[in-house]
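User: My instructor asked us to take a sequence, write out its structure as C-alpha cells, and then describe one feature of it. I'm not sure where to start. Here is the sequence I was given:
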Amino acid sequence: MPSPSKSSSLPLSASRRLSISGSIESNHNQGITVTEWGALLYSRFGVPVSLAQFDFLVNDDVLEAACHFAAEQGFVPTESRPILLNTQGEYEAIARHFEIDHDFHCFAQRVNFFPGSFVGFRANELYKVPLNLGDACAMPVSVLTTKPAPLAASFVRLISQFHFTDPASLHLKHDLCLVLSYCLFDMSYEGDYMVLGEESQEDIDRQIKRGLDLYREWEGWRDDEMWIADALEAIIQGKGDYDYLPGTPFKDVR
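Assistant: Let's start with the prediction itself. The C-alpha cells for your sequence are:
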C-alpha cells in the first residue's frame, strides 16, 4: 500500500484539532468506532488532498449519537451547501454536516458523518489505524480504514445507485479515477509546471504493465464482485471506460 501523501490542509488550530480528536474519542468511549472516508482516506493511498472536509462513516444505528458528540465539542450543525448539491448531488445531501471554523476560508471547514450503509463496508474489510488529520502527526485515537480493493469496489457499488449523468455518479467516478491513478501509476509530476517529453509507446506499455502488476496484487475483493475487479482491470488496460460502469436507469424524481 502506498504511504500517506503530504496533505494540503487549510490551517487547523490546535484547539480544533483536539476537538475533532475529542469527538472521535467520545464516540470510541461509547463503543462507536468511526471509519475514515473521503480525503482523509484517499490521502493514505498517495492522493494529494486539501483537507477542508473531514469525512467519516458511522453505523446507521449510532449516527445520532455521533452527531451528539460532535455538537458537544462545539461543532455547529449545518445544512448541505447548494454549490456542492449541484456538483455532488445526493453524495452531499446524505451526510450530516458540522462546521469547524470560518477563520481561514470562505467555506468553513467541516466534519461530515455519512451513514455506514451508504458505503456498505463489511467488518472484515476494515482495520484500525491512528487518526491522522493531515499534518503527518497521528492523533491518540483510532479510526477504521480500508484497503484499495474494498475501496475501489465500494465506489462501483455507489456509482451503480445513480444514473450516469447524476452529479453523485460523476463525483464518485472522479474520486475512483484519482485513487486508481495514484495507487498504480507514477503521478509525481502531477501539477508541476514543466515540459515533459513525449513518451514512447514502449514507455506507456511499461507503465501500464507495472500498474496492472500492482493491481493484481490487491486483495479483499468479494467473491460475488469479481466482475468489479475485471471491469476496473479493463479500465486500467485502456480497454474499458468509467462511463461504462453500471448505473441505474434514469428516474425523474421531481
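For the description part of your assignment, you could build on this observation: The CA atoms of residues 97 and 209 lie 42 Å apart. Try explaining in your own words what that tells you about the chain.
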